[in-house]
């Protein structure tokens, strides 16, 4: 167990023991006692940890909060590293720690290395995270880039926290949008061969379709002209979808994302799973006919409105195949939890999908949908207007090629997914402290530079067992060690709350504390005992910063 967690546990157990002693002396049933909670005070001058247990349990004991707090403190057993306990305000109890516990953190980092921060919070729970899942009708856009960064980092965090995680891309290779794609391809194909044709008004007008059909003609020539329009669209569509899916593979690999599964929507029709789920809902009385279409009674399960499963023309809707897809995740593949990352424009779909899971006998809470707000691209101080349909857009690959995947992945995880995001291209390439990813990486490179300089004069990082860590006693040193100690807790909280942005904030805070430390504390040239202790400290900082950047899928350069 990490030192920080052991201290939490010891203090909570001591609070519990104190409460139980007071309760026994007062004839109060132990079953009704609250579970003590700890928090870090905003003003650290109050202490390292605080509890409000005296206020939450004052009625149980029939005492004023401050009076109960005094009793808790007077009955508090001795706890290693707790140096003082004080009562503040109406009954807060503040704990100050002997900072020497932080030396154990450096020993943990030294022994664990890349494994420092690994947890067993998830206990092997099977989790599937589905993200990006862009229509394979064209290049991936900025929203896909943000979803990719959030989903991939969340998966890495949950793996580090002890979950079994699979990353999945859902390929929408069936349905109405794919049909429009085929019609648009046919028009571009005919135009390139000098035939009169027009892209449908609601089709795809981007130049990428022209490039695709030009490539098709180079490979296949005019062979598709002899086909009927229906067959021509099918042939062109199937060829173009495979080309686009392969490019998605390549672009996402360049972005540092490696999926475990690429799942095709069309397979749900081929396997009969769409028909199966419709039949099941029908047999259980959860459907009705209206205007020639088959509807799902979503409102019976708490959704805002019902939704169509099968259109009047007999063709299942995307909603029907999506229900089958989610049933496949839970029933056929046995995931304990499923996390989907969707654009905010799909917000209305969440309640109906959870309703469908409930109708199928699947606990709706096993499905979590993270909604992601829009991205605006800023270049030269101005916002760019973009449209996928019209073809005037910056693609995911454009962005990665322009500013590098480190910057894209880091910046897209700077804020929670439910906040709108402005991606500033100029900031992303700026080599200064204003650029967050540069600032974090520079801290790592700066430490590596110090260690290289030391090595050039015959000084290396010593074995921690040969170092007197008590030489680390300045405020800046303790602050840096406290931040290193909190890394496992950040991993755990990010996994439990599904908040990958906590890791970028952690990396920046750690970088800031290192820069502050190095402004005040020299390493090379100090008295030998101090120098050795500080070499261990900065090397520990290097390791933890590299660990955090690795979880973010961002490189930790040794030179900049």
Question: So what's the overall shape?
Answer: flat
**What's the rounded overall pLDDT mean?**
95
* Tally of discrete structural domains: 4
Compute the gyration radius: what is it? 29 Å
Biggest beta sheet summary = 5 strands, parallel
Separation of the first and last Cα atoms: 36 Å
- The level of helicity is 40-55%
Order of strands across the widest beta sheet?
A: 6-5-4-10-11
Strand proportion: 5-15%
GO biological process, one term: arginyl-tRNA aminoacylation
Subunit structure: Monomer.
GO molecular function, one term: ATP binding
Family: Belongs to the class-I aminoacyl-tRNA synthetase family.
List strands and helices in order, with pairings:
Blueprint: H1 3-26, E1 49-51, H2 53-56, H3 58-61, H4 65-74, E2 82-88, E3 92-97, H5 102-112, E4 126-130, H6 142-160, E5 164-171, H7 176-192, H8 207-220, H9 229-254, E6 261-264, H10 266-270, H11 273-283, E7 287-290, E8 293-296, E9 307-310, H12 318-332, E10 337-343, H13 347-359, E11 367-372, E12 375-379, E13 382-383, H14 396-403, H15 405-412, E14 421-424, H16 425-428, H17 436-456, H18 475-485, H19 487-497, H20 501-520, H21 528-551
Subunit structure: Monomer.
GO molecular function: arginine-tRNA ligase activity; ATP binding
Motif ('HIGH' region): 134-144
List the keywords:
560 residues, alpha/beta, Gyrase A, domain 2, Rossmann fold, 4 domains, 21 helices, flat, Arg-tRNA-synth_N, ATP-binding, DALR_anticod-bd, EC 6.1.1.19, Arginine--tRNA ligase
Brief rundown of the structure:
Keywords: Aminoacyl-tRNA synthetase, ATP-binding, Cytoplasm, Ligase, Nucleotide-binding, Protein biosynthesis. The chain has 560 residues and is of the alpha/beta class.
């Amino acid at each position: 167990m990490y030192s920080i967690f052991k201290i939490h546990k010891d203090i909570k157990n001591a609070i519990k023991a104190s409460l139980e002693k007071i309760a026994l002396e007062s004839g109060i049933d132990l079953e009704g006692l609250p579970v003590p909670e700890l928090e870090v005070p905003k003003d650290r001058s109050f202490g390292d940890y605080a509890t409000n247990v005296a206020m939450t349990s004052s009625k149980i004991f029939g005492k004023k909060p401050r009076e109960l707090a005094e009793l808790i403190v007077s009955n508090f057993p001795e706890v290693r590293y707790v140096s003082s306990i004080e009562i503040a305000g109406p009954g807060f109890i503040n704990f100050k720690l002997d900072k020497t516990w932080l030396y154990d953190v450096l020993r943990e980092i030294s022994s664990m290395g890349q494994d420092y921060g690994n947890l067993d919070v998830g206990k092997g729970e099977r989790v599937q995270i589905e993200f990006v899942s862009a229509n394979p009708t064209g290049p991936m856009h900025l929203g896909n880039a943000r979803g990719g960064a959030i989903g991939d980092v969340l998966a890495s965090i949950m793996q580090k926290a002890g979950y079994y995680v699979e990353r999945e891309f859902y390929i929408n290779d069936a349905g109405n949008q794919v049909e429009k794609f085929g019609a648009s391809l046919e028009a571009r194909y005919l135009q390139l061969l000098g035939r009169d044709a027009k892209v449908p008004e609601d089709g795809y007008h981007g130049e990428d379709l022209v490039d695709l059909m030009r490539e098709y003609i180079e490979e296949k020539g005019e062979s598709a002209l002899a086909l009927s329009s229906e067959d021509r669209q099918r042939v062109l569509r199937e060829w173009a979808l495979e080309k686009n899916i392969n490019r998605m593979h390549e672009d996402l690999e360049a972005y540092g994302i490696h999926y475990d599964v690429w799942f095709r929507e069309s397979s749900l029709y081929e396997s009969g799973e769409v028909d199966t789920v419709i039949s099941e809902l029908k047999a259980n009385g959860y459907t009705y006919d209206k205007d020639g279409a088959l509807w799902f009674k979503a409102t019976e399960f708490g959704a805002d409105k019902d939704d169509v499963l099968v259109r009047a023309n007999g063709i299942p809707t995307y909603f029907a195949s999506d229900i089958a897809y989610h049933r496949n995740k839970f029933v056929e593949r046995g995931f304990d939890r499923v996390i989907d990352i969707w654009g905010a424009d799909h917000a209305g779909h969440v309640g109906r999908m959870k309703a469908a899971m409930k109708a199928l006998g699947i606990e709706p809470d096993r499905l979590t949908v993270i909604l992601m707000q829009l991205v605006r691209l800023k270049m030269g101080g101005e916002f760019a207007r973009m449209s996928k349909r019209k073809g005037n857009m910056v693609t995911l690959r454009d962005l990665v090629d322009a500013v590098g995947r480190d910057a894209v992945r880091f910046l897209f995880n700077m804020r929670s997914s439910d906040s709108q995001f402005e991606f500033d291209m100029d900031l992303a390439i700026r080599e200064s402290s204003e650029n967050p990813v540069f600032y974090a990486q520079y801290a790592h490179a700066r430490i590596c530079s110090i260690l290289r300089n030391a090595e050039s004069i015959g000084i290396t990082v010593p074995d921690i067992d040969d170092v007197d860590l008590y030489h680390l006693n300045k405020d800046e040193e303790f602050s840096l060690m406290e931040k290193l100690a909190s890394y496992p807790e950040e991993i755990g909280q990010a996994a439990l709350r599904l908040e990958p942005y906590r890791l970028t904030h952690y990396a920046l805070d750690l970088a800031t504390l290192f820069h502050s430390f190095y402004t005040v504390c020299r390493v090379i040239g100090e008295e030998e005992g101090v120098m050795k202790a500080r070499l261990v400290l900065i090397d520990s900082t290097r390791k933890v910063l590299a660990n955090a950047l690795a979880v973010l899928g961002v490189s930790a350069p040794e030179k900049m």
